Amino acid sequence: MSPLAILAVALVIVIGGVLSFRLHPFVILIVAAIAVALLSPTDSAQASAGQRVAEGFGKTALDIGIVIAMASILGTCLSAAGGARRIVVSIQQLVGERRTPLALLLAGFVLGIPMFAETVFYLLMPLARAVWERTGRGYLLSVLAIVGGATMTHSLVPPTPGPLFVADALAVGMATMIMVGLVVGLVAALAGYVYATWADRRWPLTPLSVSGSPTQEGTAGPVETAAVRMPPLWAALLPILLPVVLISLESASRSAPGLFAGSLLPAIRLVGEKNLALSIAALLSILVLAASGVGMPQVRTTIAEAITEAGSIILVIAAGGALGATLRQAGLAQLSAGLGEGSGLALIPVAWVVTAVIRVAQGSATVAMITAAGVMAPIVLNSSLPFHSVYVAAAIGCGSKIGMWMNDSGFWVISRMSGMGEMQTLRTASVMVAIEGTVGLLATLALAMLWPMV
Questions:
Q1: How many CB atoms lie within 10 A of CB 195?
Q2: Is the pLDDT score of 30 beyond 90?
């Protein structure tokens, strides 16, 4: 790898952190990819810098574009249909009203699978206010529970963009990534909940109204004023669980085909392919929305909003893929070829640290995961690891939880919607997600030792 290309990588981190306040991540990533391609040594037989960037961009979009678009439709339609609210209410009924913050943690964890983390926070925050209005306590715990649940599946469980990209870059099957992501994420989320419980006792918080004054007791909660009829629980869960089941069956059919009748294998592998599985789930979510009582104009508007949001995410992820491709072409694979050999479990914390450094520098957890995957992929793909590469992917997801501060848009969403100041958000939400990321790393190391899957 040329010194100029190494310099370009360093500039990506430094300049990305400075410009993250002003420029869209797509611009930062695509400019970084072009810079690495231009500063890398080439010969006359190689494609031009622009062509190499376009090829990396196109390949990534081909791999993840449909999945992200369908996941966005699934999450947006399910939310508009009242399905997310149904899941929250059902979990609350299961654990009891006194444990509503725990219900919010579990609801955030489940909803973070098909929805983006900030969307989950927007959706569930009114419920955190409703808890305080009924009980007069536990507001900070409810806020942190939402963050703690959604943030872990956001970074560990496909089809959310970050873990989807990392799994693809490290050649990890989606079913394997989902399974390990759920285990590691749940352990980390529960650790975050323990800290949230302590923080709520240490720094009790009172919610503020939109005008900045304390809310008044007696305000109607969101459950009672919901305009959309909530679907039954099975209908709310089906679009979320079906693709997980289908993808898992498809993976099992390839690793242990003897478990299935021969006539079923083609059908399982057809519907279990990730693009088709998510498309079926998205269609189900549209049907749930249509059955909720809204008219077809609202259904069309909701789908359009989902596609618009997905388009922005796909551009960012594909630009990250272009950067990863140019890094490999610049010689990163040769530079890191020996790092994976003999490093053993040390490679897992290395991936965690790399991701954490990038996250602190530029703010976005998803962009940090994309960049770290580009750095770690040559090491993982060109080495004989003593454990499954899914554990490196999980370490990248956990590392993206470190260093949530003022250069992260999610930090300001949490701060402004909850009514916390900057220092309050840092000592509560930022510390909690850092604890989750650290516990997630420890859980990943434990799984790699106890269940290497090789």
A1: 19
A2: no
